[in-house]
Each structure stands twice: as structure tokens, then as C-alpha cells.
Design the sequence.
């Protein structure tokens, strides 16, 4: 009996005839070559971690940096900054996805924490200073003080003033003084106006002294002159250590026909506490000292409604600098200059 010998060499599928295949034909796994075993040493697998921690770190860092200087929630900003740092570090250590976001979130968290700590220090300092001012304010409110009202006048003058016991009015023909005791919280107020409002030579001055220190002084002269002095220690005066500065004010009026000139200013920080009105038919200039936070006004009004080709105007200069200027050519018109200087 004879046997046939199989042909030598591989068959069409690359294997010896009768050899057992390691896998079904057509189902070779990726990374293998036809007829061979799987290959090793290919590209490493991509990171499989989530980007959630990196995103959370980025969000917490941005919130911390944005809210660090909001007084009411600075502590929350500090907590958000710490959370951003922890989440970012964990994401980087475990090689999760979103590496760039994790680094940015960590950096923002560090900045947020530093900003929050600095803000807490600033707020604590301001709060301590504010409590000290509030304490002084409370003590000053109840403190007993000696008050003196002074009026100087060249003509019969109506004087009205307030005291802790009520308001008073009287007419004086010469200088007037009254003294009393008050508390630091009391409003001190007085007004002096000539009895004859048309008197061109009238001149009045009012002044308030508290424990011997002048706290308000105003003056006015001419027709419709008046002086109004007041003093009140509000809490705002304790919050600011910067007093209102004095400025030199020049009132310039120009005219080629009869006009009335009225100026208003404050030497004590009030609004138009002093005033001066007079008649003029030519140019005039008046210089006064005023407070830098008070309203300054100058009005020039025609008194001759039948004047031909009238020309008149006003100008206010503060420390030599022109701050307001107006002109009019109407016989029935007026020129008004207004300025509120800033400290």
C-alpha cells in the first residue's frame, strides 16, 4: 500500500498544509501581519481619565479671583481658591484629561487665595479704623460744649438763631453776642440780614465759636446782603480727615449801562452762605476767600430796560483761573456764572 506525500512549501494562505491556524481566517487582530502573531511595542494608549477635575479647578479659580475683593464674600473666595488648587493638583497627579485647564485653574486659585488674604487684611484695617472713628463720633455727640454766636453789623439787622431750648429772633442796631451750652450733636444755626434790604452800604457778619474755636464765619454787604452761619458735626465729618481748603475767588462784572450785581459764596463750607448785591454801571472786581466745596455764583442783571446796545457779563476766577464766564446783550436779560470747585 502506498501513501502520497503532501506537497512541500506553504499553501496559498501562508501556512503548511494541515497546519492548525491560531485564529480563524479573516479574523486576525489588529497589530498583526497576515499569517503571523500579534506585534507588540505599538503607540501607547491615550489617557483615559475624565476632564471633570480640571474643569472644576478652572471654574473655582476664576470665581476665587473675581470675588476676592467683594467684602461680604471674601471668605468664600478664599475657599474657592483653595478648592481650585486642590482639584488642579489632583487632576495633574493622576494624569487625568485637561492638563492645560488644570494648570490654569491652579494658577488662578493661587492668585485668588493671595488676593483674598490681602483683601481680608485691608478690610480688617479699615474696619478697625472705622470703629475708632465711630467711637469718637459717639463720644463727641454727647460732649458738652460752650457755644458763642457773634454778629457784627453797620446797620439795623434782623438776627435769627437756634439753641437747644428753641429758636429766637431779634433786631439789633449794633454788634450782638450770645453764649450758651450745647451738646456736640446739636445743630447750630444763625442768620443775619439788614432790616433795610435796599441799603447799599449795609455790611453784616456772623460767626459761631465752639469751645473758643471758630467753626463758621460768613459775611455779606450791599443791597440784599445776608450772612448765614451753621455748624453740625455729622458722622461724615469724622470719616474724612481732609478739611476743605480755602480758595481765592474773584468776581468780575462788566457793564456799559446800569446793572445789579449779586455774588454768592461760602467761607465755611455751606452753599451760598455769604452774599453781596450792589448796583454798578461800570466794570467791577471783588475778591473773597471761599471754601473749595461750596457753590460760587455771580449774576449780573440789566437795570435799564431801555438801554441801547447794552453789554454786560460775569466771570468767576478761582485761584487766578477762569472757571465760568457769561455775556449778554439784551436790555431785559442777565448773565449768570456758576461754579462748584473740587477739593
Sequence:
Amino acid at each position: 500500500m502506498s501513501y502520497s506525500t503532501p506537497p512541500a512549501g506553504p499553501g496559498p494562505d501562508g501556512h503548511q498544509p494541515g497546519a492548525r491556524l491560531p485564529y480563524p481566517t479573516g479574523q486576525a487582530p489588529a497589530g498583526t501581519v497576515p499569517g503571523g502573531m500579534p506585534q507588540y511595542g505599538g503607540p501607547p494608549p491615550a489617557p483615559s481619565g475624565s476632564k471633570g477635575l480640571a474643569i472644576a479647578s478652572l471654574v473655582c479659580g476664576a470665581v476665587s479671583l473675581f470675588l476676592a475683593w467683594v467684602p461680604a464674600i471674601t471668605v468664600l473666595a478664599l475657599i474657592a481658591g483653595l478648592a481650585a488648587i486642590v482639584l488642579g493638583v489632583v487632576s495633574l497627579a493622576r494624569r487625568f484629561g485637561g492638563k492645560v485647564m488644570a494648570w490654569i485653574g491652579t494658577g488662578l486659585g493661587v492668585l485668588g487665595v493671595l488676593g483674598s488674604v490681602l483683601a481680608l487684611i485691608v478690610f480688617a484695617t479699615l474696619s478697625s479704623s472705622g470703629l475708632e472713628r465711630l467711637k469718637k463720633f459717639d463720644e463727641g455727640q454727647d460732649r458738652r460744649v460752650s457755644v458763642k454766636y457773634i454778629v457784627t453789623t453797620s446797620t439795623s439787622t434782623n438776627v435769627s438763631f437756634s439753641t437747644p431750648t428753641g429758636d429766637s429772633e431779634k433786631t439789633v442796631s449794633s454788634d450782638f453776642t450770645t453764649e450758651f451750652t450745647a451738646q456736640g450733636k446739636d445743630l447750630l444755626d444763625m442768620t443775619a440780614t439788614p432790616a433795610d434790604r435796599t441799603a447799599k452800604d449795609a455790611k453784616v457778619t456772623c460767626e459761631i465759636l465752639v469751645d473758643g474755636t471758630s467753626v463758621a464765619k460768613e459775611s455779606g454787604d450791599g443791597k440784599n446782603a445776608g450772612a448765614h452761619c451753621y455748624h453740625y458735626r455729622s458722622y461724615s465729618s469724622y470719616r474724612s480727615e481732609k478739611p476743605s481748603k480755602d480758595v481765592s475767588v474773584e468776581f468780575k462784572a462788566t457793564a456799559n449801562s446800569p446793572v445789579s450785581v449779586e455774588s454768592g459764596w461760602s467761607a465755611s463750607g455751606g452753599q451760598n452762605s455769604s452774599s453781596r448785591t450792589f448796583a454798578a454801571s461800570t466794570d467791577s472786581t471783588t475778591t473773597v476767600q471761599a471754601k473749595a466745596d461750596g457753590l460760587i455764583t455771580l449774576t449780573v442783571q440789566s437795570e435799564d430796560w431801555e438801554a441801547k446796545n447794552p453789554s454786560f457779563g460775569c466771570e468767576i476766577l478761582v485761584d487766578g483761573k477762569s472757571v465760568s464766564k457769561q455775556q449778554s446783550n439784551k436790555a431785559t436779560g442777565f448773565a449768570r456764572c456758576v461754579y462748584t470747585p473740587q477739593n
In short: The first strand starts at residue 144 and ends at 153. Residues 99-142 form the longest helix (44 residues).
